[in-house]
Write a sequence for this structure.
């Protein structure tokens, strides 16, 4: 159900943005999310298409970018991507590290069709 809510809010944002810019045809939206705010790509695509059906967003492309979670090693200070299967610093193998803040789900970019075309 999380995906449906996310899809709804994305479409709402696109609709507002389109009105604000006076553009009618959004083509593509890019969203990004962190590891823990992640959405399931397939479920998200389906939810988006379903909700977009009766809106100006019908037929739009949805791109989902998954951002890695960055950790900082407390022993040597190295920054690395968190890997649940290897939760240790790749440089010094220390398991004492700080996990960075997870990225929230945000809209990175919305592409509209050029109105002059
Ligand atoms: Zn280290």
């Amino acid at each position: 159900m999380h995906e449906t809510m996310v899809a709804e809010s994305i479409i709402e944002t696109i609709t507002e943005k389109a009105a604000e810019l006076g553009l009618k045809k959004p083509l593509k939206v890019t969203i990004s999310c962190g590891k823990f705010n992640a959405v399931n790509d397939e479920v998200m695509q389906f939810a988006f298409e379903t909700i977009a059906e009766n809106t100006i967003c019908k037929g739009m492309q949805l791109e989902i970018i998954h951002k890695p979670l960055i950790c900082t090693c407390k022993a040597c200070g190295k920054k690395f991507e968190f890997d649940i299967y290897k939760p240790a610093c790749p440089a010094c193998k220390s398991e004492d590290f700080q996990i960075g803040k997870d990225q929230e789900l945000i809209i990175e970019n919305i592409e509209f069709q050029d109105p002059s075309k």
Q: What stands out?
A: The first helix runs from residue 2 to 21. The pocket of zinc ion is lined by residues 73, 75-76, 78, 89, 91-92, 94 (CB under 6 Å). The chain has two helices and six strands. The chain has a mean pLDDT of 94.
